[in-house]
Amino acid sequence: MLSSSENIEKLISELTNLPGVGKKSAGRLAYHIANVPKEKIESLVQAIKNVSENIKRCKVCYTLSDGDICNICSSDNRNKKQIMVVENERDLLAYESVGEYKGVYHVLGGALSPLTGVGPNELKIRELMARLSGDIEEVILATNSSVEGETTATYLAKLIKPLNIKVTRIASGVPVGGDIENIDEATLLTAFNGRRTL
Ligand code: ZN
User: Which residues pair with 115 in a beta bridge?
Assistant: First the structure.
């Protein structure tokens, strides 16, 4: 499908580089962009630029943040003694949208995967262990229920248990191989509430 404009073709090709955007949706978005007032597009472009230029990693939990410390870590309303370990910031967002969890997070940046060369040093595991030297009551292992996620949870449980900190694993309400970010909120809440001590 060749469009009537090279500019639109270029935009479609850029948009199809985004995750989950196929050629059809890219076309729809491109024609939408071509038809809305310039000011609206400028504010979209600015929002994208702001994220691209100003977002950094929180120095405590390693999720994406505007400042050195993210809103969750700096909030007085969060229980700093309860840390939920997730693979990435999208999983964090999934748990935040349930709205039930009042502790803080630790974003690993992936899961252990010997096949693709992701070992403990590639993840924020040393940083997690450093946090555990403080006053921590519970570490909730909320990695995915994929092979990699389970391997990571088992690995972390072995590291953390000797520290006499309660280690829990989210329940199997999360389907095997299911990505946390794609699971509905009710299932996620069940998985969280049904977590078991390891
Ligand atoms: Zn943080």
Answer: none
Ligand 1 centroid from CA 184, angstroms = 24
Dist. CA 52–CA 49, nearest whole Å: 5
Question: Domain span at residue 32?
Answer: 6-52
* pLDDT tens track for 24-69: 999 999 999 999 999 999 999 999 999 999 999 999 999 999 999 9
48 and 86 share a domain?
Answer: no
Q: Which token pair is 43? A: 């504010």
* Same domain for 11 and 106: no
Which protein residues have their CB within 5 A of the ion that is ligand 1?
Answer: 58, 60-61, 70, 73
104 and 176 inside one domain: yes
Give the 3-state secondary structure of residue 118: strand
Number of domains present in the structure of the chain: 2
What distance in Å separates the CA atoms of residue 178 and residue 159, rounded to the nearest whole number?
Answer: 25
Contact 21, 15 (CB under 8 A): yes
pLDDT number for residue 23: 93
- Residue 172 sits in a domain of what CATH number? 3.40.1360.10
pLDDT of 174 over the 70 cut: no
pTM of the model: 0.81
